[in-house]
Fold this protein.
Amino acid sequence: MVVVGLAALGFCWYGVSGKATLDNQTPWLSGAVLAYAVCDVGIVLWLVAGFRAVRRGQRQVVFDTRSALGLSAVLAQGPTAEQAEVAAATLVTAPGMMRFHRPECPLVRGKSVRAMSPADASSADLATCGVCES
């Protein structure tokens, strides 16, 4: 599409170059605007195809990395007994934290947390998390 648009731009330039009055140049100018739009559409389609190829490559790299490290089998196993206990808990905290959180709070995701009851949280002088609003 870009090549067709550039060829049409060249044709319109050649056509308008021999005209002296604005009335004679207007149709060629309209054709040039249309040819420029065709070039733009071609460039956008080319970029979208490139972005798709990059995303496909990224997904393949992630898949290959997980396969090479054996993470696919670990992810398929599900949660361990400790993780299941934490997920069933009403509140969690981790060493060094000054607040208690819900198990699904993004601030404790991926951290080694321990389960606690609401009574334990109040007796430990832990503040309420402002993110998960536990």
